[in-house]
Amino acid sequence: MGDNRFITFHGYKLCLNDDVYIPAEDTELIMEMIKIKDGETVLDMGSGTGILSLHALKLGAKRVLSIDVNPNAADATLCTLKSNGFSGNVLNCYLLDCIRNTKFDVAIFNPPYLPFEEYDNWLGYSWSGGKSGIDILLSFLSEVVAGRAYVVYSSLSDEDKLMSFLKERFIISSRKEIKIGLERLIGLELIKNDDQASNS
């Protein structure tokens, strides 16, 4: 595991090491969108430093399950939660491979969203979203069982493919976007479309 050091981001004390994605504009975007009701259960997929897990707990989540494929990120998440006075439920696995049919009130995923396949080091997993840029996100959304989901994607990925997928399964209840150079980052609040799910 990498050696953790502390940073502060949006007033939160976070653990970080050289093999973990540093919170950035995409993190800010999804943080601003997340709404948690007191007592809700939350899944934080791709937890990284654990900032979104911590944010969900501070907003009133009863329980947060944090998952990351990167063992250094799982370690950083656990460190962040403990450093802020929370006990952590953190798993190191690929997407939902380590849990089955677990229902959450809310799912949060700031996924790898660039159209790359660079998996030769742990940091590569944090931005490599597959050939379309949304392969990892689509896999996650196909399997997750949650009433609401908060996700981010990039305009550099296959937006048409994503919208076509979402149209069949979710209602986009909120959308926010920011521009960074030529790229747009888009945050979505998704509500599970139970009518479509029951028809498929």
Automatic annotation (TrEMBL):
<dbReference type="GO" id="GO:0035657">
    <property type="term" value="C:eRF1 methyltransferase complex"/>
</dbReference>
<keyword id="KW-0949">S-adenosyl-L-methionine</keyword>
<dbReference type="GO" id="GO:0003676">
    <property type="term" value="F:nucleic acid binding"/>
</dbReference>
<dbReference type="GO" id="GO:0032259">
    <property type="term" value="P:methylation"/>
</dbReference>
<dbReference type="InterPro" id="IPR004557">
    <property type="entry name" value="PrmC-related"/>
</dbReference>
<protein>
    <submittedName>
        <fullName>Conserved Archaeal protein</fullName>
    </submittedName>
</protein>
<keyword id="KW-0808">Transferase</keyword>
<comment type="similarity">
    <text>Belongs to the eukaryotic/archaeal PrmC-related family.</text>
</comment>
<dbReference type="GO" id="GO:0008276">
    <property type="term" value="F:protein methyltransferase activity"/>
</dbReference>
<dbReference type="GO" id="GO:0008757">
    <property type="term" value="F:S-adenosylmethionine-dependent methyltransferase activity"/>
</dbReference>
<dbReference type="InterPro" id="IPR052190">
    <property type="entry name" value="Euk-Arch_PrmC-MTase"/>
</dbReference>
<dbReference type="InterPro" id="IPR029063">
    <property type="entry name" value="SAM-dependent_MTases_sf"/>
</dbReference>
<dbReference type="InterPro" id="IPR002052">
    <property type="entry name" value="DNA_methylase_N6_adenine_CS"/>
</dbReference>
<dbReference type="Pfam" id="PF06325">
    <property type="entry name" value="PrmA"/>
</dbReference>
<keyword id="KW-0489">Methyltransferase</keyword>
